[in-house]
Amino acid sequence: MIVNLATQKGLTFCFAESCTGGLAASKITDIAGSSRVFLGSAVTYANEAKSELIGVKASTLESFGAVSEQVAQEMAEGALKKFGADFCISFSGIAGPGGGTPEKPVGLVCQGFASRDKKQSRSLQFRGDRLKLKERFALSGLFWLLEQLS
């Protein structure tokens, strides 16, 4: 549906992925014809990759942490610029089983959206094991992209 809608509207999109490890891109590339509208995904798992590949500021990472709406927003904006796409969704979260804190528990995902005229971020909380969480993180971002395209 995302690929068809983007194709109909003549729009392109990309992703900036951390906790999903390329899963969102994999789901899109499972669809024949996706290369017409999907430009790629920057899998930036390490903080250094977030900074060097898509321009997340070290000061943002230091102030808010990798799993934050601020970092997710900079990821989306940086990948949008790097790929030259019309839309970008980013993913940064904690899939566990470790790594969570009371403030940022396992199952937290921060997502960013960027287009030429709109910027938005959000935080969502899910339950499940690592693989289920990655799946839920990716699908929630794909549904958000579909919403933005509609």
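Second entry:
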Amino acid sequence: MHANLLQLSKKIRVGAVSYLNTKPLLYGLQHHAVFESIELIEDYPANLAIALQDNAIDIGLIPVAVIPDLAESYIISDYCIGATGPVASVCIFSQVPIESIQTVYLDYQSKTSVNLARILFKNYWKKDVLLLEAPANFMDLIDGTTAAVIIGDRALDNYNSYPYRYDLAEAWMNYTDKPFVFATWVSNKPLDDLFITNFNEANKLGVENIDIVVDQLSHSNNTYDLHTYFTKNISYNLDAAKKEGMAHFLSLL
């Protein structure tokens, strides 16, 4: 028993987002030897950010807007949740066109998306709107000149539910000509180089097996085509262009 407890205590606690966009990365982690050395926790982005700040986890796939709030932060992976065009799962949904919107509820699940919306309204759309923290039932409040930022699986489920939809990654690309990074793997302490190598290999394995992941999810009641989502909307490689886009975003916070 003591040996098991000791083994468990040595496992690296990894917090992953409980959204569809993370499924390929989770597949890689779960089908690589590195899985034996981690304890996997799933939650939505804002909660993972708090857990990383509180040292309740060692690594989190966290909103990039949280990185400046961490006492220590290390981007440990070459993989992320990013976009080089429309992302589909982070959008403003509205009954009226953008120029008529007066109030916007901001989805509480991700600090990055909330800040991206603020930046785009100010600098891209150049529109002064009332931005409100969203209550639990905020999607029911989209009516008239009141819109909402909806993210994650809920955005995909409601993709065609409203007359107007504004994709925030697409708007960011139009504004900056740079890709956008919503979340990336961040640790709050230095980690062993071999673990980081294996962790990267696991992420790579997942991205290379998207067809299998889509097949596994085929029984789910998904209204949005997941192969399109994983291969066209989400861009998983944290390359130089995405790092540049991320730095630009953080400079605007």
